[in-house]
Amino acid sequence: MLSAARYYADTSGRRVSIEYALIRDINDQPWRAELLAKRLRKHWASWCTSTSFR
Questions:
Q1: Which residues contact 45 (CB under 8 A, 6 or more apart)?
Q2: For each successive 10 residues of the chain (54 residues), what is the average pLDDT?
Q3: N or C: which end of the chain has fewer CB within 10 A?
Q4: H or E element, residue 35
Q5: CA within 13 Å, CB half, 25
């Protein structure tokens, strides 16, 4: 999906937003955040916003 988003941004000239919701005790472990950051950096340096649902 990230490759497709990068392709779209490159070919359209439009901005792409990636949203990832952190849910306590489901996907809020530090290793998951590090993996997400690594994957985002691979495709482009981007602004990231995290939202915590409780």
A1: none
A2: 87 86 87 85 65 61
A3: C
A4: helix 30-43
A5: 1
- Which residues lie closer than 8 Å to 53 by C-beta, 6 or more apart? 21, 22, 23, 24
- The label of the residue with tokens 């849910």 reads 23
Answer yes or no: are the C-beta atoms of 24 and 54 closer than 8 Å.
yes
- What pLDDT shows up at residue 49? 58
- Domain boundaries, position 46: 2-53
Domain count, the chain: 1
Dihedral angle computed from the Cα positions of residues 27, 32, 33 and 37, in that order, rounded to the nearest 10 degrees: -140
If we measure between CA atoms, which residue out of 48, 49, 51, 44 comes closest to residue 2? 44
